[in-house]
Write a structure and sequence with these properties.
The chain is mainly alpha-helical. The chain has one domain (51-285): MetI-like fold (Orthogonal Bundle), CATH 1.10.3720. The chain is 68% helix and 0% strand. It has 14 helices and no strands. The protein is globular and about 75 Å long. It starts with a helix and ends in a 6-residue tail after the last helix.
Length: 291
């Protein structure tokens, strides 16, 4: 009987082997190289301990700016995608003949590649020929025009706004699925008891949506920490280091052949993602409401 219950595990061996060879083992190897001086200028790889990490966290280095930008990007995009996605999900779960059409329109940027989105918005945000600045001039409010991607004050905000625009549709669809799983009888009972729309949202919808919000939050955070494509296409980390994040730093380190520093930065990223995801999952589990 025991062997009959265990036999399905055999089917996972192939997938586990592929995962170990192409994901788990390279990750462990990357962590090892984070403690070395591996580079393209020497055939020898020497163990340097935590020197790479000391250089990263030493005051006055651009690496601290990259780490700060990564946290800033992750926090802003996660909050904005979740809030906007939640509002849109509430709006488009109401009975409306155009709801499906609006869902499709809002979700459609999600299926586009970051390269296409980046190139389109790079054109739209161009300071002199871009559609946005030209539209502001045409409306008589040209004083609002900015060098969106080259101004130190606006470049990072512009990149984050583009990312929110692209990703909010995915969050909306996931939250719509969560909302549709909530029994309407709860809302009807609360409505009979005199609860307002806002009270029903705060005391029924949000608590019962916690498992879905947990999934959305973890996905947004892991994406935010790993962001690279949209920043590379729009600004390449510029102007200066203004929009640089950990992954753009990893790319630069590997480009110049400093593989040890690149893997050290990747290891820091792994630690951040693992710890924060663990913390969020555990903190939100205690708030999960059984339907």
């Amino acid at each position: 009987m025991q062997s009959k219950r265990m036999y399905p595990i055999y089917f996972s061996f192939g997938a586990l082997a592929v995962y170990f060879v192409f994901s788990f083992f390279p990750s462990l190897l990357g962590i090892f190289f984070a403690f070395t001086d591996w580079n393209s200028f020497s055939d020898e790889v020497g163990f340097v301990g935590i020197d790479n990490f000391k250089n990263i966290f030493r005051g006055g280095t651009q690496y601290l700016l990259y780490i700060g930008n990564t946290f800033k990007f992750t926090l802003f995009t996660t909050v904005m995608k979740t809030l906007l996605g939640f509002c849109l999900a509430l709006l488009f779960t109401r009975k409306n003949p155009l709801s499906n059409a609006f869902r499709m329109v809002i979700f459609s940027p999600q299926v586009l590649s970051f390269l296409i989105v980046g190139l389109v918005f790079k054109s739209l945000l161009h300071p002199s020929t871009g559609f946005i600045n030209n539209s502001l001039d045409a409306l008589g409010i040209g004083f609002l025009a900015r060098s969106w991607l080259t101004d130190l004050k606006w470049a990072f905000t512009s990149v984050m706004a583009v990312d929110v625009w692209k990703g909010v549709g995915y969050v909306m669809v996931v939250l719509i699925a969560g909302l549709q799983a909530i029994p309407q009888s709860y809302h009807e009972a609360a409505k009979i008891d005199g609860a307002s729309w806002m009270q029903r949202i705060l005391h029924i919808t949000v608590p019962m949506l916690v498992p879905t919000l947990m999934v959305v939050t973890v996905l947004n955070i892991t994406y935010g920490f790993r962001v690279f494509d949209i920043i590379y296409v729009l600004t390449n980390g510029g102007p200066g280091y203004a929009t640089g994040v950990i992954n753009t730093a990893v790319f630069k380190e590997f480009s110049i052949g400093d593989y040890g520093m690149g893997t050290a930065l990747s290891t820091i990223l792994l630690v951040f993602i693992s710890f924060i995801s663990w913390f969020i999952i555990n903190s939100m589990k205690s708030k999960t409401v059984e339907a």
